[in-house]
Amino acid sequence: MWTTRCKTSPLCLEMSTMKNREAVILGAGITGLAAAWKLAHAGYSVTIVEKEDSVGGLAGTVNWDGWRFDYGPHNFHTNDQNVIEFYRALIPDIFLERKPTYELYIFDKLMPYPLMGAKVFFALSGKKMTQAFFSFLLTRVRAFLNGIEPTDHLDEWIIRRFGKVMYALYFYPYIEKLWRTDPHRLSKVVGEKKIPILRIREYIRREIFQYKTKGAFDDLTQWESFYVKHGVGEISKFLYERLAAMDNVRVYLGEEVQTLATDGKSIISIKTSSRSIDVNAGVVISTLPIQLMTKYISNSDGRLAALAGQLEYCSVRVLFMKVRCPRVMGNDWTYFSENKFPFNRVSEYRYDKFEMVPEGHCSLTFEYPANEGDALWMMSDKELFELTYPHFSGIFKLDKADILDYRTAYLKYSYPRFTVDYQKILKEIFALIDGYSNLYSIGRQGMFCYVNVDGATAMGFDAAEELMAHPERTNHRLLLKKYHDINV
Ligand SMILES: Cc1cc2nc3c(=O)[nH]c(=O)nc-3n(C[C@H](O)[C@H](O)[C@H](O)COP(=O)(O)OP(=O)(O)OC[C@H]3O[C@@H](n4cnc5c(N)ncnc54)[C@H](O)[C@@H]3O)c2cc1C
User: Fold this and answer.
1) How far apart are CA 390 and CA 281, in angstroms?
2) Closest CA to 410 of 443, 357, 370
3) N or C: which end of the chain has fewer CB within 10 A?
4) What is the pLDDT of residues 272-287, one digit of tens each?
């Protein structure tokens, strides 16, 4: 690049720094907006391109005739003080502390969620409880005597820690339902990150022996919990409105990125449905799904897109329901882990808590993990509603006449599916992306990771800081370490 070739001259250095202080950001979800916020406030000239007419992406809020719906309950649960302070300072009136109430419906009863420690056994009927308990005990004794045999597969990782009975009764149906695939295809990393094995031990010590432990369980319970009044989409709306008012920021909404044109070494322009944006010597930060973004790169030999095509996602369909009564479930959300229910979670929004519905009413949001093309994905809104209603009203009292209206939405690329070899694939992908000297791929879909709104905000900031510190070329090493625990 011209800027690196003449870096010995002070004049050239100054010019290169000036030129490099441009960034084109693809996608106006939380990650893209957070990166834009940092860069714009550092004086960068920022262009944001978003395919939808509104911002927010997965963390958007749908305004349906004054009723507001999030795509699933967006509780803000975090221990990241930087992010908490950032939002607390910016939007104190809507960023409010709140402890949500959850329950799990399993084995025909409502149980406290998360179901941990001794409660797991008490949820079961007598015979199953005995079987599960002895299988668990035997597994733990074996693990104590012989150690736990390592494995790459999630099912084996769980069975070697919890026993076969618990796996069959509890884990298998939930995992298969949430990720829409056989758990044997998934990586043990899912277990390491999502299943609180240490916490169970601490929990038992705390609950049964009343020990006051200090460890992972306490750490998690000490995370702070917030909600955003009027819907999580208020965060992106706020960031967007402030950014759009800045002289050094341009935002193009309703423009789908179709091509990242390259000279083989860097991205030189971005082509949307209606314009071409010169990147000059600036940087491109993509938060698009990595499979799409890699397909859009021109002059590529196809290796990158082929690798990204091996990454799998689970999609989610959601059903929004307007209800003519102040509450139905009484809690904020209920999980349904068993396969007989097509939905895995239902969240309730009441007027007094969120002000997202008219007074005297509430709304329900049902989430259905699905693969695109599944029966659940393809059925009409009415068919999905008719499938759902009997399951739900069999548990919670809800008269059909009180349902004022319903509609569905489709969320593609919702959950990254961590298959056994995903880390190896990611390493290869990011090595190739780093071959383009001015391209970052970040965000939940751009980095194929499980961040929530807090993590997406932090990642946007991290990427912005990384590129400000190293304007000469992109490098995903730090981000891969922080967000995937991958060493490169
Ligand atoms: C069902 C569900 C429940 C969740 N619950 C919670 C929760 O309780 N708490 C929490 O903190 N987080 C939750 N999350 C996660 C949270 O929504 C995400 O982590 C966050 O929104 C990710 O932001 P992002 O900017 O990385 O990605 P996205 O929001 O996906 O942003 C990507 C943007 O790129 C745009 N785009 C895509 N293709 C193109 C193109 N070709 N051209 C231009 N633009 C394009 C998209 O429209 C989108 O706006 C949940 C997510 C889901 C799916």
Assistant:
1) 58
2) 370
3) C
4) 989 999 998 899 999 9
Tell which residue, 335, 343, 316, has the closest CA to residue 414: 316
Answer whether the bond into residue 114 is a cis peptide, omega within 30°: yes
Distance CA 472, CA 379 (A): 50
Task: Name the pTM for this structure.
Answer: 0.91
Q: Quick one: 290 exposed, middle or buried, by C-beta within 10 A (0-12, 13-18, 19+)?
A: buried
Helix (H), strand (E) at residue 477 = helix 477-484
Contact criterion met (CB below 8 Å) for 456 and 59: yes
What's the pLDDT at 123?
73
Neighbours of 273 (CB within 10 A): 11
Residues with CB under 6 A from ligand 1: 26-32, 49-52, 57-59, 71-76, 256-257, 287-288, 292, 316, 367, 411, 414, 443-445, 451-454, 456
Average pLDDT of the chain, as a whole number: 89
pLDDT of 204 higher than 50:
yes
Distance separating alpha carbons of residues 26 and 220, to the nearest angstrom? 33
How large a percentage of the chain has pLDDT more than 70?
A: 90
Going by alpha carbons, the residue nearest to atom 51 of ligand 1 is 58
**Count of all residues that appear for the chain in the document:** 488
Q: Which residue's CA lies nearest to atom 20 of ligand 1?
A: 453
Q: Which pLDDT belongs to residue 14?
A: 40
Q: Determine which residue's CA is closest to atom 5 belonging to ligand 1.
A: 74
What domains are there in the chain, each with its CATH number?
2-57+233-309+419-484 (3.50.50.60), 117-195 (no CATH)
Q: How far is the CA of 155 from the centre of ligand 1 (A)?
A: 28
Average pLDDT score over residue span 140-157: 92
Neighbours of 318 (CB within 10 A): 23
What's the pLDDT score for residue 6?
34
Kindly report, residue by residue over 314-365, the tens digit of the pLDDT.
999 999 999 999 999 999 999 999 999 999 999 999 988 778 999 999 999 9
Give the pLDDT of residue 124. Answer: 74
Query: How far apart (Å, rounded) are the C-alpha atoms in residues 69 and 59?
Result: 10
3-class state of residue 416 by DSSP: strand
What pLDDT does residue 296 have?
97
Phi (first) and psi of residue 369, to 5 degrees: -60, 140
45-66 burial, b at 16+ Cβ within 10 Å, e below that, comes to: bbbbbbbeebbbbbbbbbeeee
The reported pLDDT for the residue numbered 317 is 98
